[in-house]
Design a protein that fits this description.
single chain; about 550 residues; alpha/beta; six-stranded mixed β-sheet; elongated
């Protein structure tokens, strides 16, 4: 039935039913979300951010209007929170500023489809069940957030990541991953909206369910679930942050200079370490291209350095296997190996689109000739979450998390072995990928990255937030070593210890704890998110199929 002209005109007014007012409320949700993440870090705002959008949906809007409001939330949030996308293209890709921001807007528009689907699903349920359907919002949000990387490959800034600095809440991730925290956050906004209709039939039960979900962090905190400290052991780790320009020219002279600088920083760090020894040395991902397997002179130099320092070295390399190239991590042993074999190599699994590979290359290389000639897309993805067992020689105690580690009877001061799972760059944003290293036995996680591409934007801070959440989810210390910062030890409870100053060359020494126990999340993975996706899909299908009766008056 066609709406009267007066009604259509009203839809653009500032009335509660008007498009302008509803869009303003959606934009309010978007900017509350932006403020919840770095660089703003007003993480408490995340708990109310979805309330304006949910309130508008609860008024009863068309599915087309719901799609628009959800999409508007997504596009504004992504465009402003992930402004580093355009920065990289302008300053290091030579792309015109206007074109770079147009590409960033297109990227945001694609990701915005998932909040749009969320809004449509919630609106559809509201049509059937009335305001009480707002109680389904946390489950539906998690379903769309979890499904997003399956279609786009992008996990960045899942809502729960905003709470990485608050361990009492973030510890929930040890049970259901970051998506369980996302559900908690949306539940708080849904609760606010439902309280506006608390006197209506059925609303009280929905409020009760949301209160139970919202209370879960406090119930978990009250339970005595501290890990068994008898599984802790200590190792000394040195990290080198070279601060090289991301577009550095790879001439032999520059490579030789940068390599010597890394070696100098390494030795200076070891001289500051307890007993002037480091169990493990980590070099950042950087423009310093090290062809360890195919350059005998380089291999001998680095192997000699490992023997001299009596340290294992975790280094980012470029590997050629026939005609395939891999962005890799090699782990070098301080012990001479007469067989010429080295510890198992890790090849990066999650490659950066248009940076390390070209999606649909057979099509795009023909459409955009620059891809075919620029060298972009030359890497092949790895397939295995490699964990190497390092036999440590040193026996020492040290400083853990900024305070003296005082062992008691039954707790190891040191260990003879460390099992290291090392991954590269934005792989820290993929919960299940990092979990794979822990499932394979990693007692220490290592993330090497080149965040210089982000410049002085929110990118490095958001990247660190993802790493913090991975450490908490898996109850593992995680050492981040980046080209330009933020390089730091992230403890198993998400604390950032002794970060190096950003955009400065330097090295740092950390005492890390090696942990063996598995969290419920590490054992069972995304059970919560999968359950939310299945439930959301079923209830939407049943509503569309007419299995549920229409909303009753007052219901």
């Amino acid at each position: 039935m066609t709406r009267p002209a007066a009604s259509r005109k009203l839809s653009f007014s500032l009335s509660p039913e008007g498009l302008l007012w509803q869009s303003t409320m959606a934009i309010a949700t978007a900017f509350l979300l932006v403020a919840s993440f770095p660089n703003f870090d007003y993480s408490f705002l995340a708990w109310v951010a979805l309330a304006p959008l949910l309130f508008m949906l609860a008024q009863g809007v068309s599915l087309r209007r719901a799609f628009w409001l959800g999409w508007l939330v997504g596009v504004v949030f992504t465009f402003f929170a992930e402004n580093w996308i355009a920065h990289s293209m302008v300053y290091f890709g030579g792309v015109l500023t206007v074109l770079a921001y147009a590409v960033a807007f297109f990227f945001a528009s694609i990701l915005a489809l998932f909040p749009a689907v969320f809004a449509v699903a919630v609106s559809l349920l509201i049509r059937r069940f009335g305001w009480v359907a707002i109680a389904f919002a946390p489950v539906i949000w998690v379903a769309t957030e979890w499904l997003r990387p399956f279609f786009t490959g992008v996990t960045w800034n899942a809502l729960g990541v905003s709470q990485a600095q608050h361990f009492p809440v973030a510890r929930l991730a040890q049970y259901g991953g970051v998506y369980l925290i996302s559900a908690e956050i949306v539940a708080a906004s849904a609760l606010i909206v439902l309280l506006l209709k608390i006197r209506e039939r059925g609303i009280g039960r929905a409020v009760g369910l949301l209160l139970l979900l919202a209370a879960t962090p406090f119930l978990v905190r009250m339970a005595n679930t501290e890990p068994d400290k008898a599984t802790f052991a200590v190792a000394t780790v040195a990290g080198v942050q070279p601060n090289l320009p991301p577009d550095s020219q790879a001439s032999p002279e520059v490579i030789a200079r940068d390599l010597e600088n890394n070696i100098r920083l390494t030795k200076e760090a070891i001289d500051r370490a307890p007993d002037k020894a480091a169990d493990i040395v980590i070099w950042a991902e950087s423009p310093l291209a090290l062809f360890y397997e195919t350059d005998p002179a380089l291999r001998e130099k680095l192997d000699a350095l490992a023997r001299e320092t009596r340290s294992y070295f975790v280094i980012n390399t470029v590997t050629r296997d026939d005609w395939k190239y891999f962005n890799s991590i090699h782990t070098l042993s301080p012990r001479a190996d007469a067989t010429g074999k080295f510890l198992k190599r890790y090849d990066k699994i999650r490659l950066v689109p248009f940076g390390e590979y070209v999606p649909m290359a057979s099509v795009l290389n023909n459409v955009v000739k620059a891809f075919a000639t620029s060298g972009v897309g030359g890497f092949t993805a790895g397939t295995e979450n490699v964990v190497n067992t390092l036999r440590l020689e040193t026996q020492r105690a040290g400083i853990v998390g900024g305070s003296e580690f005082n062992p008691v009877e039954g707790i190891e001061r040191t260990t003879n072995y460390a099992r290291v799972g090392a991954f590269i760059c934005y792989e820290a944003a993929y919960p299940d990928l990092v979990r794979g290293f822990v499932k394979n036995g990693a007692t220490l996680l290592v993330n090497v990255s080149n965040d210089a591409w982000f410049g002085d934007t929110s990118g490095p801070h958001q990247h660190l937030a993802h790493a913090r959440m991975r450490a908490i989810e898996n109850d593992r210390d995680l050492v981040r070593v980046t080209n330009s910062g933020i390089s730091a030890l992230v403890t198993a409870d998400g604390r950032v210890v002794d970060p190096l100053p950003s955009f400065n060359a330097g090295a740092q020494v950390w005492q890390v704890q090696l942990r063996r126990g598995l969290t419920f999340y590490a054992q069972h993975g995304e059970w919560f998110a999968i359950g939310c996706a299945v439930f959301s899909g079923l209830i939407v299908i049943f509503v569309l199929a007419g299995k549920f009766g229409k909303q009753q008056p007052g219901g």
